[in-house]
Amino acid sequence: MSTTTTAAPAPALSDRPIETTRSWKAPIGFGVFTLLALLFFGVLHRAGETTFRLANGGDFFALPNVPLPATGTGIVVIVLLALATVYAVVEVRGARRIPLWLTAVFAIVFVVGFLTWSAAGDTIPVPGLLVGALGLSVPLVFGALGGVISERVGVVNIAIEGQFLAGAFTSAMIASLTGSAWVGLVGALIAGVLVSFVLAAFSIKYLVDQVIVGVVINAFISGLTGFLYSQVLSPNEQTLNVGVRFPKIEIPVLHQIPVIGPVFFEQTVVVYLAYVAVAVVTFALFKTRWGLRLRAVGEHPQAADTVGINVARTRFWNVSLAGAIAGLGGAYFTLDAVGPFTKDMTAGAGYIALAAVIFGRWDPIRATLAALLFGFASNLQNILGAIDSPVPSEFLLMLPYVVTIFAVAGLVGQSRGPAAAGKPYTKS
């Protein structure tokens, strides 16, 4: 008597367990900040009351001041941060992605606690804090958008700092010669494109390492603009470095909205262009054929080449476009924020913009939010220094860079850039 055995059917594809990769970076980052809050807001708590002033002249109506007791607020903040940390741990243990809103709420709660603790007994002008933060963020936004476009098409744009400097120098000189900030703005666009031409030529045509080319370009532009400043602009400041700037434009009705009105709607043309640039780049990158081709070249250039896309030409022109956008960021320094050009006035903002690209996971909206975060951290040192905060001045100076390191190394989590970024492509 023979018996036949039937093999058990193989599990369907949908029934197979899915391997997931867990990243503990965000929960660890949350935990570190929670411990810092426990140390400062709890153990080293300060007595007194911090007043947050929300009113601004010209608002439709004046919002009342918000007084917060430093000790009580610190306790509440510690509890909320601890709960958020526990929630993040539970989500990661369940192999789920930590929602973006949790990170945003965590950051806001920590900042409120830090401001309340550091300014105990003083008043913080919230509109002024936000206006300054936006001003410092605008060049980072332009640089981050340029970085997103360039890396999405497959070229790592380390040269954002050089594009900033070239745009700032050119816009200052041309605006001074012509007396027109608009002509200076066009000059900044051209300067950014010219710098990107060098990056594109060496990295795409001659297949030189993109990171090395970018670093060399930054050093060259820094030296060139510094030399021209000392030898040309400085001796002729009254004609070549006057400091022509765009006037502020108040958007009717909108600029009178409490708190956000003076922040977003009492700005110059360059800031309004940043709003437009974020919207246009986001839409074009994900909703147009141009954006589809750009992303295809950055992810799989060989496949894009197979369907008839000219990889080298696509990369060259999009790197040039990225340089033009970054040049606008350089123009902000001279046509809006400062006026006259000074040596190395960008102070490493291009590298922070590059960090915003990584922190924003190569997405225009996320990169813009990251740029706003870094700008807020930069302006925070000015506010805390003005109110004689107990935080050491050395820490205040390094605050933007500390936030950058924590954001990129500690809170990004699992992040993958465009697959072909930094890799030269040769047609086989």
Describe it for me?
The protein is mostly helical and 428 residues long. Helices cover 66% and strands 4% of the residues. The chain is globular, with a radius of gyration of 25 Å. Its main location: membrane. InterPro entries: ABC_transp_permease.
Tell me briefly what this model is.
By secondary structure, this protein is mainly alpha-helical. The protein is built from 16 helices and five strands.
Which terms summarize this structure?
428 residues; mainly alpha; two-stranded antiparallel sheet; 16 helices; 5 strands; disordered N terminus; transmembrane helix
What structural class results from the helix and strand content? mainly alpha
Number of strands: 5
Strand content: under 5%
Largest sheet: 3 strands, mixed
Compressed to H and E, one letter per element, the order equals HEEHHEHHHHHEHEHHHHHHH
- Please state the average pLDDT score: 85
Radius of gyration: 25 Å
Distance between the termini: 64 Å
* Total helical elements: 16
Spatial order of the strands in the main sheet?
2-1-3
Shape: globular
Low-confidence region ranges: 1-8, 10-20
Q: Assign a percent range to the helix content.
A: 55-70%
Organism: Curtobacterium caseinilyticum
Membrane topology: Multi-pass membrane protein
Subcellular location: Cell membrane
Protein name: ABC transporter permease
